[in-house]
Structures are given as structure tokens and as C-alpha cells.
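Please, structure for the following, as C-alpha cells.
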Amino acid sequence: MTQANNVAASTPPSWTTANRPASPALGQMGWNTTLEQLEVWNGYGWIASITQSYTISYLAIAGGGGGGTSGGGGGAGGFLSGSNTSVTSGTAYTITVGAGGAGGTPAPAQGSNGGNSVISSIATAIGGGGGGGYGSVVSGLNGGSGGGLGQNTTGGSAGSGTAGQGYAGGGNTGGSNSASGGGGAGGVGIGGSNPGGGNGGPGAVSSISGSSVTYAGGGGGGAYQVGSTGGTGGGGNGGNNGAGTAGTANLGAGGGGSWNGVAGAQGGSGIVFISYPGSVARGSGGTITITGGNVIHTFTSSGTYTA
């Protein structure tokens, strides 16, 4: 006589993250339809009974560099993207959003570098380089994208960018009457040309937010007679015998260089995105939107992404 192999199966209760049992018993188990995982109450919190992983895409934009005093535009923050990156459910990933670098002070000074934007151990976008000043500090600083060369009367050089994240600042050709633009995520800054400052380098485009947006434009260089334009992606304009304009916040844009001893302009802060396919959020943290078949976590300030 042959006996069929009938295996009894049981289906656990299910709930969403928002509607978990209010007073669970120790060891109570159920299927979380929000997180798409089996979880159990251990007396202190809900934990995944089986560790799961899934893949994300990300974009990290660092803070833009500040513009120099009577000098070059700030370089854009690094533009760093990735896809098919594995994360583990229930694991917390620290998110750091880089601040924009300060502009050079009214004394002859370079702008400051922007802050790095970091996704735990997954990605580090490098802050943009500060724009060069004048006198003995004309060189632009290295960064995600490099700062533009300042008032070029004593040599010096443009700041270099980071491979895969941005481009170098412009080299000055205008002598004592103009400075160069900072580099952007999409191209180098333009050298100053008497009497005009050099424009900032263009930014780069991403649609990870659900819309096509240009990020990380370089700041324009200051000049004695004719100011300059910041790069696409929020770069600040260079000053026309005065103050430049700040890089746009949360685009990682470089600040514009100033002229006539006025302080350089502030770089723009960065931003971080995490995205994965779906119609229900699996993770938490940041501002969550669901569009185009993707769940998007947007961080405009530092925080934590829990997968």
C-alpha cells in the first residue's frame, strides 16, 4: 500500500507595520505585508525571523564648495550613483548629508570645501572644493569637483575633481581682473577672461527622484567688470565687482566667487536618495514617495535608513 506524502502547512497571521498587534505575546509571529517578511516579537521589538536582503539604487550628492574672496567659484559636490546594491532587512544605515562650504572671508581667502555625503559603508560622495582667493591663496581646492583658480597674479592652479564624481575647476586667463568657475558634475569650470569671470561647470542629470533634475553645478568666478554664470544644477553666479550668489541648497552646487574684497558665497548643501521597485515602503527613513513603480527615500538632512 502506498501512502501519499501529505505535508500539513499552516499560514501565519498577517499585518502591516502600522497595524501590528498592540499587545503581542512573547514569540508571536506573523507576516508583515509592508516589509514582505516574517517577523517575531522578542519582548522588546519586532525582529525579522529570517534575514532577507534586497537591492537598492542610490544617488549621493555632497555639499558644494564656497566661492573665494575676489576669486574663483566653488566646485560642486561629488555626484555618486549606484544600482543593484544589496541591503539587509532590519539593518540601519547611517545617512550623512554634506553641508555647503563657507565662502572665503573678506580677508584674502579661499572658500571652504563642502561636506561629504555618505551612505554608511556603501557610498561616499566628496565635498566640492573651495574657490581660490587672491594674493598667496589663489589656488582652487580639490574636491568632488574642483574650485576655480582665483585672481591669477602669482601662479597657482585650479582644484581637481574626484574621478567618477566631478570635474576640475577652471584655470584663470584674465590676470588680475577676473577669476575662474568651479567644476561641475558634468564638466570643467571655465577660465576667467578679462574683463569677465569664468562660468561654472555644468551639473549632471538624474531621474532617481521621479523627475529629471540637474544637480551639482559649479559656481561662477568673480570679476572686476563682468560677472559670470553658475553652472546648470544650481551653481551660484560670480560677483561683478561685488558679492557672488550662493549655490542652491540640496543640489550640491558651488558658491559664486566675489570681487573687491567681498566675502565669497556659500556652497549649497547636498542630498541623498535611496530607491527600489515597489508600491509599498520596505524601509524607513527620510521623506518617502512612491512614483513610477519605485519607492523613493529622500534625505535633505542627515538621518538613518532602516532597510
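The chain has a mean pLDDT of 92. The longest strand covers residues 79-88.
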